[in-house]
Amino acid sequence: MVNSVLLTSTLFKKLIDQGIQRGYLNDFLPTLDGESYLTKQHIQLSIQNHVMKHGRASIAELADLLNLEQSCIIQALNDINEFIKVDDLVFTSKYIDGFINQIKDRVDQTGWVSVLAQAQSISLPYAFLQTILDEKLLCNEDYIKYSTLPDLILSEEYYNKSIETIKGALEEASDKPIHIVMVDGLAKENVLKGHFRGRRERAVFEPTVYRDRQVELIFSLLEAAGYIEYETVVRHYPYMNPTDLLKKNYPNILLLDGCAATEDLVKKLEAKIQETYDTSTWLDASAWAPFVFTPADATGLLEHTMTRLTHLTSPTTSRRSLGSLADPENRLIVLESRFVTSTRYLEELIKSSTDFLNKRALSEIQQQKKTHSSKGKKHRADDKGLVLTEQEICKYLIEECGLEKSFARSVSTTLRRPMTDAFQRAIQTVYLPSSNNGSGTLLSPESQWIEALKKRQQTLLSTLHQTIVYTTQAIQIFKDESGNKSLEKYVVRVLCLEWLYNFLVLQTLSEAYDIAGVEDAVGVSEKDLENQKKISEDHQKMAIQRMLEVHSSDVQLKDLHQAALAGKKPDLFLSYFESSPPNFFKPLTENVKKQAWKDMVNSLGRLLNTCSLSESTGPSILHITSLICFEYIYHNTPFSVSGKYVPLIIRHCTPQLEAKDQSKEAKLLNDAHAMIMAHVKSKQPVDLDLLAKVKKQGQQWVSKLQDI
């Protein structure tokens, strides 16, 4: 009989929140009211059902429907590929085809249609509708668009009839000399609605109806988007200076370097800055600005908006309009005329850097101990050399805090002084109690460093153990005898050798009394020990030989070393893992394997997302995507090998994909492999469009695997 315990809603909510925070419940998102938790699968399904039912939806509408932040909806939409996304709107293809057919019918009936009027009637972005019509309607020769009147679409029949009518009227008017004189007189007497622009024979008659319609179109575009380029104004109405035209009709318009912005766009930026301030984060105003904005335009918009905010929060004005922005203890800050953040956010960054500063301080003390052993701790803290460089801070912000490189570079300049002060305080307090020794006494800085490195080595060894076992199991899937042998050699000569090196480092750490002893035993500097990625395979081999001389009585380790150098089969390592596993190894249960597989899929997805499209990254993108493809075909089968085996993986996966009715995907991988090999061998150009398709396919597979 199973005993059950009833939990209160408060306790249950607390347990779920802790699970989410600690990464055990990655698939759950809390609603805005905090009363419910939704799975990512439920969110995607709800979005799909709503959009399929109505044909279209806005991100705000979907956020209200599910009671979630809009950012959660945007993230879910990134994983749904069946819809068309434009700005904050989502459409089905059927919906798009429907209104295209409606517009086509209207043109056929009336002879012409205004794209702007149609965009306003169905609440669609004008530029998007114009692009869709260009692709799906104007490709037909039965329809025409003038470059000077880009808002109108005409049927060819209507166009031909209109041309004949105009030609007939002109021929009749110019049939007799008296008619020409009469037309000139009517224009001068202002009987004709319009006026001449220019002098004498170069004068051009501009009908009033044309002027009014073009100006109306310009301001409709301005109001719809919140901004307009001066080039667009000139293209639609070339008879007046664009800034004069805009200022005449919109006295409050903001004139920038290459375009103009409305009051609504300024207010949207104000609201975004308010959100940035309230949530203690940062904003890249240049990225937020419309894509047509030049850097000068984005800077001008931000400066204007910040000037307004400064005025609204000054002591002489009312503080009601922007509420919390008036907090004197939390000021807005602009960096490089581009980034907006707050003093509170910067303070949080400094507070979160405590561990980083403590490690850096410990490293500094250890280094100075070697060179200035006679100095006391207080004297060391006064050393003028004890400063943090902007490069160090920037690297920490990128790698540990996850900040974008451009913002990290900018904010590191501002943080250098306060973080250096905190760093110098850390040097005075770096000797902290530690429970690692179990005695409750204080550990020396060197002992703290050794204990921290031991923990890291144990984690690394456990991960390598799983990789070796699971990759060896996955190799059995391949039915290529020579390929299997090559893969097994990789496991032994690379993965097993790396495991042996790190295991010997761990043993050395367990027996060491100080850092100098570790450096001497391993033959590697303290800095390189902290950053294992810098140690080459050849250096690892020399370090193994050096450490085995110390452990010369351990026959098992020597046998493992010989097996790794021979590089044939990993059997001896697998036997060692089973018979003499270190006490920190996890039992490789089915759940552990599933979690390792999920971690691998997520890691491959992150690696793929960070790869830019270029000739140099092409092999990496194909390597990562081929591994993702293998995981897509064989679920719960972690498999980790180098890029050398991409041809083998693709060759094996091709028939498996074809069996899943994914021949196009198989061809895509084979074409990309042929292209990259041609580039490597004969420097043929890399097709970045093909590479982009490979990357997108890998991302789609990852998305599907994450839903399992």
Automatic annotation (TrEMBL):
Highest rank taxon of the organism: Eukaryota
Gene Ontology terms describing biological process: protein K69-linked ufmylation; regulation of proteasomal ubiquitin-dependent protein catabolic process; response to endoplasmic reticulum stress
One GO cellular component, as annotated: endoplasmic reticulum membrane
A single GO molecular function term of this UniProt record: UFM1 ligase activity
Residue ranges of every copy of the E3 UFM1-protein ligase 1-like N-terminal domain listed in the record: 20-235
Protein name, as recorded: E3 UFM1-protein ligase 1-like N-terminal domain-containing protein
Protein source organism: Phycomyces blakesleeanus (strain ATCC 8743b / DSM 1359 / FGSC 10004 / NBRC 33097 / NRRL 1555)
